[in-house]
Amino acid sequence: MRSLLVRNGQVVSLDQLTQELWGEAPPVRADASLHVYVSQLRKVLNKFSLNRDVITTRAPGYILNLGRDELDLDLFVALLEKGHLQMSMHDHAGASESLTQALGLWREPVHGSSYEGPIIREFANWADELRVECVELLARSLLVSDQAREAIRILYSLITEYPLREDFYALLMEALSRSGRRADALEVYQTARKRIRDELGLEPCRFLQETQEFVLNDRLDKFQIMHAPNGGKRVPAN
């Protein structure tokens, strides 16, 4: 059960498991069915896990303890954190390697199952944000490492996936401009402006408009983009 997996080390109640599996229309003997499912899952996991009694009963439900087993997600988060640290220390090549390794662990979206309750939805949204953060950071590290072509490819993919994320457009414009493709960078701005106006009825944010001005005035060589969770800013380049 994915609900136990994503809550590894935490108790998941019978009510929560019932909601995950059957939503608002559980069968008459839902608790009995859950006990059977957990029993079968326990037998399978005990064959492969380094930890005995992987699933234990603990009121008001069950708890999954993988012990020394490692989840790909744990490795992914560790590599993402390492990439952040390396970027902060200006080890951009090392950051690119760590972040590429992290993305290599990514398999497929968590969404997509017919059994998708609150626990899975919350986890899926959180995990996808981590993935996007990793991809964006990789693009930034590649750009700083003079690998603009690969950074541009990644950023075009990001704006296709998230057509209303203005910070992605800004970073793509910077990458194109620094690669001598100012006309393409300005075209990206016009694309972003049209999408934002069509979808939201708004003008691009101040930061994206500022990026356009920097491209038009050919001033990006004097500044570098610094992203923050709620926007971005520019600081003098080293």
Kindly describe this structure.
This protein is mainly alpha-helical and 238 residues long. It has three domains: 63 residues, Winged helix-like DNA-binding domain superfamily/Winged helix DNA-binding domain (Arc Repressor Mutant, subunit A, Orthogonal Bundle); 77 residues; 86 residues, Alpha Horseshoe (Serine Threonine Protein Phosphatase 5, Tetratricopeptide repeat), CATH 1.25.40.10. It has ten helices and five strands, in the order H-E-H-H-E-E-H-H-H-H-H-H-H-E-E. Strands 1-3-2 form a three-stranded antiparallel β-sheet. Helix 6 packs antiparallel against helix 7, helix 7 packs antiparallel against helix 8 and helix 9 packs antiparallel against helix 10. The longest helix is centred in the middle third of the chain and has 27 residues. About 3% of the residues have low confidence.
First-to-last CA distance: 50 Å
Order of helices and strands: HEHHEEHHHHHHHEE
The CATH topology of the largest domain is what? Serine Threonine Protein Phosphatase 5, Tetratricopeptide repeat
Quaternary structure:
single chain
Topology overview:
Blueprint: H1 2-6, E1 11-13, H2 14-22, H3 30-48, E2 55-58, E3 61-64, H4 72-88, H5 92-104, H6 118-144, H7 148-161, H8 166-178, H9 182-200, H10 206-216, E4 223-228, E5 231-236
Antiparallel strand pairs: 1-3, 2-3, 4-5
Helix pairs in contact: 4-5, 4-6, 5-6, 6-7, 7-8, 8-9, 8-10, 9-10
Brief synopsis:
The protein has 10 helices and 5 strands; from the N terminus they run H-E-H-H-E-E-H-H-H-H-H-H-H-E-E. The chain has helices spanning 2-6, 14-22, 30-48, 72-88, 92-104, 118-144, 148-161, 166-178, 182-200, 206-216, and strands spanning 11-13, 55-58, 61-64, 223-228, 231-236. The strands form 2 sheets. A 3-stranded antiparallel β-sheet has the order 1-3-2.
